[in-house]
Amino acid sequence: MTEVINFRSATGTPEILIVDDEPRLLNSLKSLLTSMGYSVTSANGGQEAIELLKFAQFDLVLLDLFMPEVTGHDVMDFIIESLIDISIIVVSGDTSIDSAISALHRGAYSFLRKPYEPDELLKTVDNALKKRQLEQENENLVQQLEQSERWYRYLVDNSPDIIYTLDSEGRFNFLNDRAEALLGYPTEQLIGQHYSHIVYHEDLETANYTLNEKRTEERATRNTEIRVKCLNEFKDDSEEIKLLTLEFSSFGIYEQDKLGGTQRYVGTYGVAKDVSPRKKAEQMINYQAYHDLLTGLANRMMFKDHMELAMAQAKRNNHMFAVMFLDLDRFKVVNDTLGHGIGDLLLVEVASRLKQCLREGDTLARLGGDEFTILLPQIKDREDAESAASKIVDSLALPFEIENHEVYASISVGISIYPTDGESIDTLIKNADIAMYDSKGKGRNRFQFYAKEMNVSFAEKLSLENLLRKALERNEFIVYYQPQVLTHANTITGMEALIRWRSPLHGMLSPDDFIPIAEETGLIVPIGEFVLRSACKQAKIWEKMNLHPLRVAVNISSQQIEQPNFVDYISELLQEFDLPGHVLELEITEGTILRDINMTNDKLVKLSKLGVRIALDDFGTGYSSLGYIKKFPINTIKIDRCFVHDLPGNPNNSSIVTALCSMADGLKLELIAEGVEKEEQMNFLRTLKCGEIQGFLFSKPLPVEEATKLLVNERSTHGAAPKQQILSL
Ligand SMILES: Nc1nc2c(ncn2[C@@H]2O[C@H](COP(=O)(O)O[C@H]3[C@@H](O)[C@H](n4cnc5c(=O)[nH]c(N)nc54)O[C@@H]3COP(=O)(O)O)[C@@H](O)[C@H]2O)c(=O)[nH]1
After folding, report:
1. Among 88, 68, 80, 70, which Cα is nearest to 18's?
2. CB-CB neighbours of 357 under 10 Å
């Protein structure tokens, strides 16, 4: 490649090439121009000039036309063909006008005739160079403008915002590429369209104000949110129409009239920023602030907001509203045995059943864990709340089918009524909570209206709960034993272990005083284990004293049986005390079985295989379905004392007990009648061939020493030979 030498000096001195076949003229011209400060290169003839032009750059060439072989015209043709950027002044002795015209047509700046006046030549050279400089400056400017136009276009099209202009009628006459990317409309489809074509109808008024902006600069409209419709194809399947929220800033555009006088409004220039992601994030934050994320229900914050509204309306219209506090019974057991995943699913299912019990306008909220609240914003009377509450309690009666588990749940509900039970939001929630606790204490799976007296018992309960926690560590529990006796022979066959709490603060407490709280708090599990261990230990002691054969019966709460390791625990306990399984009888209620029939049956079968006996306690008070009893490995039925206490006088109870006795006989089940206090009850049961009785008639529950004495006496009377040593725990 030919190297191009730049003859244009770095200082900006113009480079001039002079071309002539007359050396004399060349020399004089060179001296003239050099004396004026130009940088001059001379070429002796057309061919030499062409050679120089091939690899050097000049600003100006002074060219003689008539030269032998290669003429000035040839040089000019070479310049044109080679697209050489150079100014040309033709200096020629040819006086014909054609020659001048031809030179000028080929792009010569000027034509000088020989002989020329030095001043004339210098002036022409100066003018040509000035013109050239101006042309170059102009070209630079054009290039800069083109470059900046390209940059501007690039920036506009790649802007994250829509940039547009509207004409004075509000029709789009420019949109950057972002508009199509965001809204879906091809640009050419929107050009010429009025902005109302894409503005969501509800926001049209705002749009009319914003997009017709005539003001400029600081006074113009900024950051106005307007929803814009996207092209149909842009919408999700779920949406009717896809809307984008854009934040518009717009400014009036004015043109000056030709005379530079008045300004004419020609349209609006605007920028629209897509704020939909921000809006979505705001909506999400807002949703999270007011909702429970697991169930989608209202959370405490929204519940209180709704209560505030209900209270304002109730005050204005002088009406009542109800607040309910709900807590799932034994939810902890579900979590502990089936895992938190199932626990969460249960909460979602419970929420959905609760929702079905409510009317439009009622608020159901989840406060966290297994606690829910309900607001009935307008009720006529307490019965309104009562019927809603009983519907709620009943709604959980059927088991939940969760991931192949049949889960039974029940709920305890407390109700407070505005204005009778409180005139502030917090008081009403607190009192509903207190009533809920009362409900739990009274056996769960029920509702309870708040009453002032509950405040005291609630406080008592709290302190009792704390004391109960410490009672285990401080060894304050003891086990009493109540004999179970053969009806026909008065022989003790078993001892029921019944817990007592020797509280330093409250004295001797019976199970009814603390078992409900122990169940609520889950403390029933360690407390129950204490009773089981004490009873097994005592059975071993009695065995060593030769007071056997004797079984010990222990009450088992549903939470105990729901413990995943319950069967193993019992098995290890029997091994530890070296007891055969049949020495231990576990008393469970129908309620326990019904909580989770499959799980309970599985465990009862395993326990039976260990030889452990199962007694169905409080029989007759629950569902008392004989059908299902057959399905379970039950050895004994305990007739509840409520059927026994007025025997034989009460014909109803007499027939029930008579039927139970014959049924037990038919099913080959053993029977124990509880709460036998009178001789005539005993005689009646004897005639019905009820196998065993338990009750004050024979003995109250006794401390271990007295129970042992009784056994020793009883065994010596009946011919056994007990060792005369009383061992206690
Ligand atoms: N989960 C556990 N529950 C237990 C445990 N220990 C007891 N309990 C349950 O507490 C309830 C009350 O028990 P308690 O106050 O001990 O009452 C027992 C007897 O004293 C009472 N009884 C016995 N005979 C008579 C009588 O002739 N008349 C009369 N009025 N009451 C009598 O009955 C209770 C025994 O009932 P039951 O268990 O159904 O056989 C009670 O429900 C206990 O089950 C424990 O360790 N864990």
Report:
1. 88
2. 19
Least reliable range by pLDDT among 123-132, 250-259, 418-427, 573-582: 250-259
Give the nearest ligand 1 atom to 694 CA.
24
Q: What is the pLDDT of residue 219?
A: 73
**Does the pLDDT of residue 549 top 80, yes or no?**
no
Tokens 């109250």 appear where? Answer: 700
Torsion, CA 678, CA 683, CA 688, CA 694, rounded to 10: 40
Q: Closest Cα to residue 371, out of 403, 336, 339, 328?
A: 328
236/221 Cα distance (integer angstroms): 32
Q: Best of 477, 495, 498 to mutate for ligand 1, by most ligand atoms within 8 A of CB?
A: 498
Distance, in Å, from the CA atom of 161 to the CA atom of 154, rounded to the nearest integer, reads 13
Cα–Cα separations (whole angstroms), residue 317 to 6, 321, 374, 421: 98, 11, 21, 18
Structural domains in the chain plus CATH codes: 15-140 (3.40.50.2300), 159-281 (3.30.450.20), 296-450 (3.30.70.270), 475-718 (3.20.20.450)
Q: What is the ipTM of this complex?
A: 0.94
Angle between helices 511-521 and 454-473 (to 10 degrees): 80
* Alpha carbon distance 207, 213 (integer Å): 10
Buried (b) or exposed (e) across 344-353, using 16+ Cβ within 10 A?
Answer: ebbbebbbeb
Q: Could you read off the pLDDT of 80-134 as tens digits, one per residue?
A: 999 999 999 999 887 777 877 888 888 889 888 888 889 999 999 999 999 988 9
Q: Is the pLDDT of residue 218 over 90?
A: no
Average pLDDT over residues 715-720: 67
Residue 445, Ramachandran bin (φ over 0: left; ψ between -120 and 50: alpha; else beta): left
Which amino acids bring their CB within 6 angstroms of ligand 1? 482, 496, 498-499, 510-512, 515, 528, 531, 555, 557, 587, 617-618, 638, 641, 674-677, 694-696, 701
Query: Quick check: 439 and 446 in contact, CB under 8 A?
Result: yes
**Of the candidates 254, 167, 266, 250, which has an alpha carbon nearest to the alpha carbon of residue 209?**
250
Distance 708 CA to ligand 1 centre (A): 19
Q: Tell me the CA–centroid distance for residue 694 and ligand 1, in Å.
A: 11
DSSP 399: P
Distance CA 430, CA 307 (A): 13
In whole angstroms, give the CA distance from residue 404 to residue 289.
Answer: 34
Torsion on CA atoms 506, 507, 513, 519, rounded to nearest 10: 80
pTM score above 0.80: no
- Determine which residue's CA is closest to atom 44 belonging to ligand 1: 555
Centre of ligand 1 to C-alpha 648, Å, is 22
Query: Could you read off the pLDDT of 662-709 as tens digits, one per residue?
Result: 888 888 889 999 999 999 999 999 999 899 999 999 999 999 999 999
For atom 4 of ligand 1, which residue has the closest CA? Answer: 555
CA of 460 to the centre of ligand 1 (A): 23
**pLDDT: which is higher, 378 or 717:** 378
Distance from residue 482's CA to the centre of ligand 1 (Å): 9
Determine the atom of ligand 1 nearest the C-alpha atom of 618: 39
Question: Average pLDDT, whole number, for the chain?
Answer: 88
Distance from residue 678's CA to the centre of ligand 1 (Å): 18
pLDDT in tens, 364-423: 999 989 999 999 999 999 999 999 999 999 999 888 999 988 888 899 999 999 999 999
Q: How far apart are CA 140 and CA 451, in angstroms?
A: 93
Ligand 1, atom 13, residue with closest C-alpha: 511
Residue among 321, 315, 312 nearest 428 (CA): 321
